[in-house]
Structure formats: structure tokens, C-alpha cells
Amino acid sequence: MAVNEEPGADSDNTVWHLYLLETSAGALYTGITTDVARRFKEHAAGRGAKALRGKGPLVLCHQQAVGSRGEALRLEAEIKRLTPARKREWLAAQRAGLSAASCEGE
């Protein structure tokens, strides 16, 4: 995902987002984009990352505005280095105090 060009990605004003998806098997996928809704639709339609094809239905577990593409890439890399258990801990920490729906298995 990080190597894909996003619409408007050249603009200094573009806000990048980090998002986490959960597959039907419970695996977590981390990505970045400038448009979470568009990117989720691409993944759900099988046009997104190859790692998610045939793994649906997908659930959007988390999304957050990060800022610049560089900041988003750094956070994405940090999250991807975590074990699945640590990713779920990170998600729980992000949701602390929020009433957002959680992924299955949490």
C-alpha cells in the first residue's frame, strides 16, 4: 500500500490516515491512505492489497488521521512490527474511553 500513489498525494496539505482491518479469520492488516472509505471499498471488492484477497468479509477496526505521508509510513511500520497480540493491545489502548465498535475477538 505504501508504494501506491494516492490521489492528491503530492499536495503538502494532504492528510494521511492509518487504518487497521480484520479478516474473517481474525488476522489484522495495517495500511495507510488519504481516503479510508475509498480504500476500504477497494479492499472489500478484492482490488486492494493481495494479502486481503479472499479473506473477507473485512472489518474496519481502526482509523486515525496521522498527518504527512512520512508520519503515516513511520507509524504503519511501527504497527506492522508488533506481534498480533501487541497489535490488539495497541488497538485497545487507542480505544480506551471510546465507544467505538471493536473487532471480533477483542
UniProtKB/TrEMBL annotation:
UniProt cross-references to PANTHER family, sorted A to Z: UPF0213 PROTEIN YHBQ
Family: Belongs to the UPF0213 family.
Domain named GIY-YIG: residues: 14-89
Protein name: GIY-YIG domain-containing protein
Gene3D superfamilies according to UniProt: GIY-YIG endonuclease
Domain of life: Bacteria
InterPro entries attached to this UniProt entry: GIY-YIG_endonuc, GIY-YIG_endonuc_sf, UPF0213_domain
A Pfam family it matches: GIY-YIG
